[in-house]
Amino acid sequence: MDNLACCFTGHRAIRFDILPRLYTTLLEELDALTVEGYTDFYAGGALGFDTLAAQAVLQKQKSNSQIKLHLILPCKNQHANWHNHQQEVYQQILEQASSIKYVSETYSVEAMRQRNRLLVEKSNYCLCYLNRNRRSGTAFTVQYAKSCHVPVKNLLDNLSFPDSTFMNF
Fold first, then answer.
1. Comparing C-alpha atoms, which of 169, 156, 109, 108 is closest to residue 9?
2. For residue 68, pLDDT beyond 80
3. pLDDT interval class at 13 (50, 70, 90)
4. H or E stretch at 3
5. What b/e sequence results for 79-115 when a residue is b if at least 16 CB atoms lie within 10 Å of its CB, and e otherwise?
6. Does the pLDDT of residue 165 top 60, yes or no?
7. According to the model, what pLDDT value does residue 2 have?
8. Strand order across the beta sheet in which 68-75 lies
9. Dist CA 142 CA 117 (whole Å)
10. For residues 70 and 101, is the Cβ–Cβ distance under 8 A?
11. Cα–Cα dist 23/158, whole Å
12. Mean pLDDT, rounded, for 111-115
């Protein structure tokens, strides 16, 4: 690992009322990380937080060509059952990524776990959106990062909000 790298992990469902604040927080975190020398950012390509994080990295890349978005994807067809708009956004992210690695040809639980482990193993830092669900892929990835001594920051800790609806995008 030559450059400083950060991975993202988070839930697919994001509370609609905090989406703008979460995106703004992501942009602020990316600014702070790039000042510290982080240039490589790894996302898993899932709906929700992964998509939001990838979009934030691509936004920052417009003003800083040193920033790179790397995708580590569980399989080539993970988007097959997504809505048309979600597939269009996914395709735009794929087209702009600096690199893409597929863990498997087809979906499996093990491919998802391997993707999550690779995200952490490529990184010096982890930004997450974790709502305390201990049985999720996000929780697994955060625990794995901690076991690898990769510092983790949960962006949800900085946001407060009332009960509301969730949004998948």
1. 156
2. yes
3. confident
4. none
5. beeeeeeeeebbeebeeebeeeebbbeeeeeebbbeb
6. no
7. 64
8. 99-104, 68-75, 38-43, 4-10, 125-129, 152-154
9. 10
10. yes
11. 12
12. 95
| β partners of residue 72 | 101
Q: Is 41:70 a contact under the CB 8 Å cutoff?
A: yes
Cβ-contact 94, 44 below 8 angstroms:
no
167 pairs with which residues across the strands?
A: 14
If one looks up domain 4-167 in CATH, what number appears? 3.40.50.450
Q: Is the dihedral of CA 51, 113, 117, 151 positive or negative?
A: positive
SS (H, E, C) 22-38: HHHHHHHHHHHHHHCCE
Q: What DSSP designation does 96 have?
A: H
Mean of the per-residue pLDDT values for the chain?
Answer: 91
pTM: 0.90
